[in-house]
Design goal:
The chain has 341 residues and is an alpha/beta fold. It has 2 domains: 6-121 and 304-320, ATPase, nucleotide binding domain (Nucleotidyltransferase, domain 5, 2-Layer Sandwich), CATH 3.30.420; 132-301, 2-Layer Sandwich (Nucleotidyltransferase, domain 5), CATH 3.30.420. Helix content is 44%, strand content 19%. Strands 3-2-1-4-5 form a 5-stranded mixed β-sheet, sandwiched between helices. A 5-stranded mixed β-sheet has the order 8-7-6-9-10, with helices on both faces. The structure holds 5'-O-[(R)-(carboxyoxy)(hydroxy)phosphoryl]adenosine and zinc ion (ZN).
Length: 341
């Protein structure tokens, strides 16, 4: 019998201070998230300096809570895992420094994890049968990637955004229609009251990058629509704009993903990242995958947005492969997926 692996995972790449204890990569014993959203709301987006400062204030408390919720001592951990990129450098540094200090003090191996690898691995937590290879759409506030997951820790990006990430588009449009930050969940909610066919917004096709995305044109189209309503003195129906915008995003994401699934011959498809918690996106993929007899996987919303359990899941497979980082591990704000530093 192999020994159980307990990983204490830390995530601080953006505006969530998070820690979790994960057993054997797929069993979450605790998942503590301190969200800073309320703090950043008054500025309409994440303020990096404020994020770093709040991470410093909260990180020890969140880590202690994760161990206590899991009913485990630090001495019972097998390894410490931490997100070291991509993300905000000051924010990442807080988690990386804390992980290095704990690793040194407790004599535990240190495993640095790629944030997007964490998002993808969130799918392993509740889908015990999911194993690579599969295709994964990662849609978050900073990333929109269509990724071939060839094996654990082995990725190939086949499509990416040329401009705004999907979540970024949600956030910008939400701000423009007065819904505030963070835009994704608000647009999701308001859209339920609106007509998705009320306004036809463009679905961008990117020349030469078959599976690439572009959302800045769509965002501009929404802004133009709002301006023209204002000029004509017409009342804007916020719910209709939200629903129509959301449909345009979902249509493009589904179309690209289904084409890629067909071309590459995958029978398993997963979604990940904050935007993957969007109810309309989940429904559209559920239906499209059912039609094509493709198994569809998605994490629960709490594992879609930033959390440390997903980092623990990704770290497990890295740890099993023998990945260990030294105390020279640094934050890498532009870390590429699959890159090992
Ligand atoms: O993965 P995440 O927590 O952080 C990044 O790594 O970026 O994603 C945050 C993004 C934000 O842009 C937020 O507006 C979006 O995910 N989001 C949503 C929903 N919930 C969060 N977008 C659409 N619908 C949602 N329900
Ligand atoms: Zn994220």
């Amino acid at each position: 019998m192999e020994k159980d692996v307990y990983i204490l995972a830390i995530e601080s790449s953006c505006d969530e201070t998070a820690a979790a204890v994960v057993k054997n990569g797929r069993e979450v014993l605790s998942n503590v998230i301190y969200s800073q959203i309320a703090l950043h709301t008054e500025y309409g987006g994440v303020v990096p300096e404020i994020a770093s400062r709040k991470h410093i204030e909260k990180i020890n408390q969140v880590i202690e809570q994760a161990l206590s919720d899991a009913h485990r001592e630090l001495s019972q951990m097998t390894a410490i895992a931490v997100t070291y990129g991509p993300g905000l450098v000051g924010a990442l540094l807080v988690g990386v420094s804390a992980a290095k200090a704990i690793s040194f003090a407790a004599g535990l191996p240190l495993v640095g994890v790629h944030h997007i690898e964490g998002h993808i691995s969130a799918n392993y937590i509740e889908n015990k049968e999911l194993v690579p290879p599969f295709l994964c759409l990662v849609v978050s506030g900073g990333h929109s990637h269509l990724v071939e997951v060839k094996a654990y820790g082995e990725y190939k990006i086949i499509g990416r955004t040329r401009d705004d990430a999907a979540g970024e588009a949600f956030d910008k449009v939400a701000r423009a229609i007065g819904l505030g930050y963070p835009g994704g969940p608000k647009i999701d909610r308001v859209s339920k009251e609106g007509n998705p066919d009320a306004i036809h917004f463009p679905r961008a096709k990117v020349e030469s990058g078959e599976y690439d995305f572009s959302f800045s044109g769509l965002k501009s189209a929404v802004l133009n629509y709002l301006n023209s309503c204002e000029m004509k003195g017409e009342q804007v129906n916020t719910a209709d704009v939200a629903a129509s915008f959301q449909k345009a995003v979902v249509d493009v994401l589904v179309e690209h993903s289904m084409e890629a699934l067909q071309k590459y011959g995958y029978k398993k498809f997963a979604i990940a990242g904050g935007v993957a918690s969007n109810s309309s996106l989940r429904k559209a993929f559920q239906e499209a995958c059912e039609k094509k007899e493709i198994a569809f996987y998605h994490p629960s919303p709490v594992y879609c947005t930033d959390n440390a359990a997903m980092i623990g899941a990704a770290a497990y497979y890295e740890f099993q492969k023998g990945v260990r980082h030294g105390f020279d591990l640094n934050a890498v704000p532009n870390l590429k997926l699959g890159e090992r530093i």
